[in-house]
Fold:
Amino acid sequence: MSDPRVAAIPVQDCGEDLVDIRVSGAFLVDERKHDPNGHYAHLRQGALDRLQHAQQLLPSGLRLLIVEGYRPPTLQRAYFQEYATELRHANPGWSDSLIHEAASRYVSPPQIAPHSAGAAVDLTLADQDGQEVDMGTRMNASPEESGGDCYTHAEPINPRARAHRETLCRAMSEAGFVNYPTEWWHFSYGDRYWALHSSQQTALYGPRDPA
Structure:
């Protein structure tokens, strides 16, 4: 998200509501990112429609396991500042601008964050029993922690995890999402990053405060 072309994309918010992923009962929803207001389980309607399509594209025996969708701007800001602080402690010689650029590669700056627009979803694959399959790293592993294996197309991961990532990416991309390549679990539709990588002139969704 550090690419200045992302921030340069204008937003023409279509005004779609944030809707609860859990209502239909179509998805497995993990509660590790649960918040008291249930924000984590919401997406814009257009993104949810495409998520339902992605699940239909999966091979028999696999399901999407949703971990986090909408993230209020205040929480996104806290995540960004926390990671920037970690980088600052690990690299005391870095300038503020370098810290911001490096942090932006892993955590979206609040003003352009897809999660805060209700456009992004963090998810993985599960088997028929609801158990997560091997994806090579835990979800939300940082580049530092995983030695870069969190990157979607990381080479050293085992063949089974590689196949699972390819299956997830294929279903999500065919449904209209784009993947953020430093995070195998992160996909978005309708935000600025999606617009840039889908050759769209404007984004459909911008940051939104909770209702």
The radius of gyration is 17 Å. The chain has seven helices and seven strands. The helical segments are 4-8, 45-57, 73-90, 96-104, 143-146, 159-174, 192-197. The first strand starts at residue 18 and ends at 20.
